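Box 3.1 A note on notation
Throughout this textbook, protein chains are presented in two layers. The first layer is the amino acid sequence; the second is a token string describing backbone geometry. Keep the layers aligned when reading.
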Amino acid sequence: VVVPHRALIDYIAWMGQKYPGARGVALLGSSVTFDISVTTLFAPLIVGGCVLLSPLEYDPELEAWLADHPCTLLSATPSHLALLDALPPAFVPTVDLMLGGEPLTAEALELSRRRRPGLRAHNVYGPTEITVTCTEYAVEPGQRLAPGQITIGTRQPGNRLYVLDERLRPVPVGVKGELYVGGTGVARGYLGRPGLTAQRFVADPWGPPGSRMYRTGDLVRWRPDGTVSFIGCADD
């Protein structure tokens, strides 16, 4: 996926402002080839934070270090929450926990929130083709959550969200449709694959002249509160 520098810089700059945990100690436990690592690796470095490179596994020396230098930012998938729950509290960030790549439920998040009452959890969504993430829902400290899946939230700055039917017509609130994303985060396409690029990156009739939107292949629906609920992949 060819992501322009402008899109990446805009994303990192916004993350540095949005996530106060980036100004502290960010624990990078995922591979740098996984795009969600972009947040933990680069955002702290532009706002004066620190990046700690370490696998997300128990290490007594690491636990002792984190006791003196608390982790304030961690990016992971919801599947990692079970692993995080089995580790000592020092491994749970005190400020910001960013979760994406899979549906997130209130039940999966419960223990981390109880262990860190001041934690703000961010349920994010976005394929690599939109420069890491394009939507977010922040679960604030003390906020009560309904059981089940948590909304993927609303668009992040610079992005446009469209929920469309098979004929590329916007669907009403509550009706299932495919998610298309436009805006500054849209990648240029797939390197050396013009056919696939033309199939997935299509003209954006609601954006500026010449702009494109990305067809995610994911089914969603608008909620009455203006957020988006993830349903699943269109091919499933």
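Helices lie at 5-18, 37-46, 60-68, 80-86, 106-115, 194-200. The chain has a mean pLDDT of 95.
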